[in-house]
Amino acid sequence: MRKNKLKQVVSLAMVGAMVLTPVSVLAGWKKPTTISKISATSKTVRVGQEFELKVYSNERNVDDDYFVWSIDNKSIVRFDDDDRYDDEMEFKALKAGTATITCKIKGTNVKETCVVKVEEKQKTPYITIDDDDERFTVDVYDRENLEAKLRNATTSNRGLNYKSLDTDIVTVDSRGNVYGKKVGKGRIQISSKADPSIKKIVTVYVEWDD
Fold this sequence. Notes:
This protein is mostly beta strands. Helices cover 11% and strands 42% of the residues.
């Protein structure tokens, strides 16, 4: 009788411990100790432009919530939402100036920074991509859309043409879907259908899925 009660107490204690244990621990995720790189250490954006930064760790099964982001000048750049903890973060440029964005591993001094220069809005037509205007990343054997847009266009034809300049590494279809063929660095040229002189070359980094 006592043994059965003891088993019940132990079982209840184990259940309680599981309830109180974070899901990340149960899943085998761990606190990272290093940041191997950040997607950009410096970048230039326009007022009103949204952009993304991402940090990478060589360690596997790390808990992304240990990566915490901060901005030293929030009048120049702000967070796109209220979240501050993740391996990737979205921002919006507010006005011309310079701001430093830092990603740090919570509870440590391990960090990476990106200096962001915000320029006034461009008045002539230009092309942007949604993810990161200077660096685009896709996993090998996977697809990502560039989400390219023609800005300040005076014509109603806002269509875009896409062309891979390194087809052995990366390909792209007529809708801007990029496919990573093998690990490496490739280039995609985007141009306006109405005015081919309006164009942009995007560097695409094909990486293994971390």
